[in-house]
Amino acid sequence: MAYIVAEPCIGTKDHACVDVCPVECFYEGEEILWIHPEECIDCAACEPECPVAAIFEATQVPEQWQHFIQQNADACKDGHTLPVAVQRAVWEAQKEEEGSEANLYYKKYPAKH
């Protein structure tokens, strides 16, 4: 069973999880990072790296965030066009690039930490 990204990621998108993923199964959503459920190898490397505790094994997702299991799956359906998530250093550098995805994201969601 794959790992799932849930609500705490919204407004954070830290990307530390992306750095440790050995199979590059993270994708950039508009507000959140998604884990492709068919690409995730259940290694759990990402879970402890998340600074806002937004990553869960699918059977361990808290009740209030259960709907994120389907949202992760829907976001990564065959034919999806989401870009592969970039490493944290790249994401952080893009914050300063006017008009970049990271720059626009943090204009919408000022940094939490």
Automatic annotation (TrEMBL):
Name the source's superkingdom. Bacteria
Q: Which residues form a coiled coil?
A: none
Swiss-Prot/TrEMBL cofactor(s):
[3Fe-4S] cluster; [4Fe-4S] cluster
Q: Which InterPro entries match?
A: 4Fe4S_Fe-S-bd, 4Fe4S_Fe_S_CS, 7Fe_ferredoxin, RnfB_subfamily
Question: What Gene3D superfamilies does the annotation carry?
Answer: 3.30.70.20
- Pfam families, per the entry: Fer4
Primary role: Ferredoxins are iron-sulfur proteins that transfer electrons in a wide variety of metabolic reactions.
Q: What is this protein called?
A: Ferredoxin
According to the UniProt entry, its GO molecular function terms are: 4 iron, 4 sulfur cluster binding; electron transfer activity; metal ion binding
Q: Does the keyword Metal-binding apply?
A: yes
Q: Locate the 4Fe-4S ferredoxin-type domain: which residues?
A: 31-60
Going by the UniProt record, its keywords in alphabetical order are:
4Fe-4S, Electron transport, Iron, Iron-sulfur, Metal-binding, Transport
